[in-house]
Amino acid sequence: FNGPYLTRCMRVMCRNAQYLIKRPSGILNKSLGVIAVAEAFNDSLRLHPSLLDCIATLYNCKAKDIPPDDSRLRLARVPSTSKLIYGGDPLTGQPSFYPVVRIRNVFILPGVPKFFRQGFGIIKPHICDPNVKFFGKNFYCTCEETQLATRLSEFAAKHKENLLIGSYPVTNNRYYKVRISLESQDPRVLEEASEAFAELLSGELVSYDPD
């Protein structure tokens, strides 16, 4: 890993993006990535007391007993000027156990899968405009995504001004092979696009209830 290169890349991305969400990728890469974030803002790392408490709880130990060279401490090293953002647990109503780390326009999500998923809910109020609402509809297709590529690209180009299109192939479902989502801020645009899309893939779509 090239530390200076990562720092330069991070500095460019932080400067050009409204928000940057850093995903975890293992303890080693997390350490390098967080260092790059800190250096991008001319900052340095420190052990955050609250994160030390989280680690102690996760690993059933006392923070003061963790050796200074223990790799687990990398989970508690964050940029010194960063802030911790806590959300609410939807099941208990209590504050979330593990926070998201924020430094300026960068959000660093925790690596533990459970807390990683919760992290998106925590940062949502910080990056989403509450006055902007999207309407969406899902379609489920029985053919491979590669067979849809050209048609999806052409359809997306035709509606690029006011419609978002996403395709998500699956391998563990016997009813469909690709889920296609259409989203728009205008429900009328969504309705018209949905009718056109259903006609485009007529005979290749199935009714499916994900619940």
TrEMBL record:
Pfam families: FLAD1_M. It comes from the Eukaryota. Residues 133-207 form the FAD synthase middle domain. PANTHER family: NICOTINAMIDE-NUCLEOTIDE AMIDOHYDROLASE PNCC, NMN AMIDOHYDROLASE-LIKE PROTEIN YFAY. This is FAD synthase. The lineage of its organism: Eukaryota, Metazoa, Spiralia, Lophotrochozoa, Platyhelminthes.
